[in-house]
Protein: CHAT domain-containing protein
Organism: Cladocopium goreaui
Amino acid sequence: MPSPGEATESKSRGRFKRPAQLFEGLKAKVSEAVWKQKARGTPIVSIAKGSGPRPADEAPKPPRPYVTRPGMGSPRGYREPWNSQHDGSPSPAIQRHRTGCCGVRPSSGRSGRSGNSYGSEGSEGLAALPKDVPQFYLEGMSHDSTPTVTECRASSSCSSPPVVPVYHDYFFTSPIRREPLRQVYYLYASPLDQPPIDVRSEVETIHDAFAESGSHVQLNVGVATVESLTKLLTLARSQRGLALHLSAHAYRSEKGDVGLVLEDAKGFSHVLWKKNLEEILGMRDRHLQNTSLLFLSTCWSQELAQVFVECGCPHVVSLRTRVHDIAARRFSQQFYLSLGVGESLLASWQAARTCLHNHPESEIGDQSEHFILFGQHAADKATLQQLCGEGESAEGQLRMLEDAAQFLEVKMPPRPEHFLGRMQSIREMMHHFSGHQSRRACALWGPEGIGKSALGVEFLHFAAAPGRHFSCCAGRVHIEAMDLVGIANAVNEELESLAVQSQVCLRPGSSDSRSSLCSTGLSARSAESSISICEAPSDLDAMTLLLPLRQRLRRGFQQIERARRRAPTLLVVDDEAGAVAADKDVRKLFGELLEHTCQLHILILSRAPIYHSLGPTKVVNVPLSGLKEPDAAKLFLQRIHRMLDDRDFPDPVVGNADAGGGEPAPSVPQRKLMESTILRLKGHPLLHCLGGHPGKIREVASQVTPNGPSLMDLAEGMVVDNG
């Protein structure tokens, strides 16, 4: 039976056997030539036992309490309390904590719970923080002989990654806390049958104001429908504050009733009358108490603002009468900029009115008095943090809303110049693509120059606006030649663009796993994986050669569909070459995409109707005819280069006539002059010959120049040419 001393020594050796072995392993990794003593003869590293007793005056100070790292079992910012005894020594609890675990382990090559490797920089941890290492590790090592970080790095030959330094005093006493992300909501209604609202400019103005102020605000954008407005105001009841900017039109009936113009599912007007608005808002129950701020950017919205105030909304900004779009954007910019820098609601409103009042154009500046603030009581104390809910941040993103930053980064083709009419065509296509019996493939067909491409781009902008059916997820492919490989590569390029817009990282194909589609900088045309038919064996058809690319396209659209929570995606195919109608392989290519996805929709712009199916999917044909006479006359006036006079009309009338390229008489307003000229052009022989064809209208209008032929001469020439 061993003696008590031997038992204690055996127990002690068993207890400290593993740390000693770790130090021995660390020492074995270092070359003997590196381990040299300093000038005073003190070794850089000494292990386990000292050479002799340490004098009392050189005894090291008691180590400071050990603090665990974040991710090592203690909550973020946790600091072990310093519980000392009366003699200044650590309490038994602290001593047990030190002996049971340590802050820096010697090089074991293992990883801690935080994921950091403690292999190569064990010596650096000892050098940087010797006070956090238990005393049995420091036995035989004096403070003067402690190596520096540079010395340890120079002497270490380990190849393991370094340990992240632990900043006990600084990090845990002064933790870095990010300001919570505040949420501001922007709803808009710009129906097809109403004057368009420049939504992108308004969103960009407000977003830039918050970004420049550094207020950590996320602007969420969506379309204003009865469903979206009701859902947002309902969710506001569970929050401590909600700020909403509503941009829409107001309508006043012949009886004097006022209504708020929202949108329906097809993009047309849905007037929400004052009585119906009171029912939705819940006037009796005052359900808007948690909707802390409403900016009602609507002309003649003073009466509507009173409804929101009576329903419990504490602060409402409204417009007394009609204001210019420039004035509304300038006021909003200064208003939200002031809120973002921490000014109160009342001070921000006053600053915005002052800024607008000093606009260089007096007509714009005079409209500053039309911006009214309801609920000025306590507005001098309400800040953006309180209006958005103090300390509250949204945990998720509403399905109907888009982040303004992501919306502004979406790349869209430029909108066509002087686009007129076609509202019914856009509504018809929205009807086919949405609803319970929505179709997945439509063909908009018509002769060359009728305006298919312009209508396709305009439909892309409308349907892909935030909150609408194809919210921020629509692309366009232009087919210029009957080239199957080129068409497939063009679709692949558009797929990559959609993936970037949707923040989806596409998985690489099985034949090219070196990099993902969204991470490579090369397009499909220049990538090594693109297929050249000329280099392929002659016994293989094009579809067989395109099999890897076809599979990649299917997987890519499926990934986007899953990432967008099965939200619809639109692909506009501008088929200038007529490939879809003429080539069965092209139809098979698009048919496979529709067959292997659920929410992908395809709009084909073709010069001929498409009666063949795209795989199992039927194509709905929508014919496109010429413009109506008023729209054709307005387009003609916008494209000519001189004023019209009496020689341009069959029946001369005393008065002034207007042309888009000329200067009207100063005594007649521009708008009224345009309307009167359109009435004079009604039934004109030239418009009758043009037949509302936009391409022909632009071509003939370019000939109406100073000292050029009259409209009557051009009409006679067209009659002769037509036989």
Summary: The chain is about 35% helix and 10% strand. Residues 72 and 505 are 32 Å apart (CA to CA). The longest strand covers residues 182-188. The mean pLDDT is 77.
